[in-house]
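Milestone 3.1: sequence recovery, worked example.
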C-alpha cells in the first residue's frame, strides 16, 4: 500500500486534505499510533497533534491577537521614608514635612 506522503520531502507540510485523508486512514486502521506513524513516515508527536486538533474541531489554532495595555503608574515616590526595625514606616511626600516628623518620631515605639 502506498503512503499518502511518499512524495513529500522531509519537513514539508501536508495540506489540510492530505492530513484529513491520513487521519481517516488511521481511524480505519487497527494499528497503534506509533505503528501507523512509523508506517507512513510521520512523527508520532505529529500524528498525536493532528488527532488532538481534529478532536478540538480545528485544523489550526486560532491566530494570536495582541492588544496594547496601559499599566497604572508606579507607586508614588516618597521624598523621605523611615522604616523601623519594629516594622512601622513613615513616608513623607515632600521634604518640607520633616518638621512634622521630628515631633512624630518620639511618639512611635522604638
Amino acid at each position: 500500500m502506498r503512503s499518502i506522503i511518499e512524495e513529500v520531502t522531509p519537513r514539508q507540510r501536508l495540506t489540510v486534505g492530505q492530513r484529513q485523508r491520513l487521519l481517516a486512514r488511521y481511524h480505519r486502521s487497527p494499528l497503534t499510533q506509533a505503528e501507523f506513524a512509523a508506517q507512513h513516515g510521520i512523527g508520532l508527536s505529529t500524528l498525536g497533534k493532528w488527532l488532538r486538533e481534529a478532536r478540538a474541531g480545528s485544523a489550526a489554532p486560532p491566530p494570536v491577537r495582541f492588544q496594547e495595555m496601559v499599566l497604572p503608574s508606579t507607586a508614588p515616590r516618597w521624598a523621605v521614608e523611615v522604616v523601623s526595625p519594629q516594622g512601622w514606616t513613615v513616608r513623607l511626600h515632600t521634604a518640607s514635612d520633616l518638621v512634622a516628623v521630628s515631633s512624630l518620631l518620639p511618639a512611635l515605639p522604638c
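DSSP finds four helices and two strands in the chain. The longest strand covers residues 80-83.
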